[in-house]
Write a structure and sequence with these properties.
single chain, 203 residues, 67% helix
């Protein structure tokens, strides 16, 4: 991907294979005892928060959304079927629907107004400024592509595979790859880069 962070590129493909079996055991335990949901929360709270932050633009909104996601996930856990989808795909589907509801309730201008407020208090001032600038650059690039393409990129940036993104958005992996290709072509044009050599993916 044009805008994928280089530091995550190698780790993303290995995550589902490492976690899926372990997730199944944790989910089974959590269905019997709510307190056993804690390990799942600890594993996925940060990815869900970062996904929410990229969608909503502020730390406070992302924190509230993350809390809503896990409350809804815990409430809906008895209905989760591991034979239909991975827990991670299911959780991000919950997150996607929560964020859609939040975005519908917000004023259209609020996302742009709040985007500059993205910051992490942990690093020093210079690191914070650079982090906020990078986050805003990513948000600006995402805003330049069509909504369906943006949703695909946001989930890919959250670390989900093509198959998982398809499960979250309720479409086929081919549709995800097509949207991703069109988004990459658009972003390369915006960045003044040469287009991809292959001409496929225009559907």
């Amino acid at each position: 991907m044009v805008i994928r962070r280089r530091g995550n590129a190698r780790s993303v493909p290995s995550v589902p294979a490492v976690h899926d079996a372990d997730d199944a055991a944790l989910v089974a335990a959590a269905k019997c005892e709510r307190a056993a949901f804690a390990p799942l929360y600890l594993r996925y709270a940060d990815p869900v928060y970062r996904y929410s932050l990229r969608r909503l633009g502020t730390k406070e909104a992302a924190e509230d959304a993350t809390a809503q996601v896990f409350m809804k996930a815990l409430a809906a856990l008895p209905a989760y079927r591991e034979d239909r989808t991975s827990f991670r795909s299911w959780l991000f589907a919950v997150a996607h629907h929560v964020l859609v509801d939040i975005e519908r309730a917000r004023r259209p201008s609020s996302v742009l107004e709040e985007a500059a407020a993205v910051a992490d208090s942990a690093p020093g001032p210079e690191a914070t400024a650079l982090s906020a600038e990078a986050q805003e650059e990513v948000r600006s690039l995402l805003a330049a592509v069509a909504p369906d393409q943006r949703r695909v990129l946001e989930l890919r940036l959250a670390g989900l595979t093509t198959v998982e993104v398809a499960a979250v958005l309720g479409c086929s992996p081919g549709a995800v790859r097509s949207a991703q290709f069109r988004a990459a072509t658009r972003l390369r044009a915006l960045l003044g880069l040469a287009p991809h050599g292959k001409g496929a993916g225009n559907a």
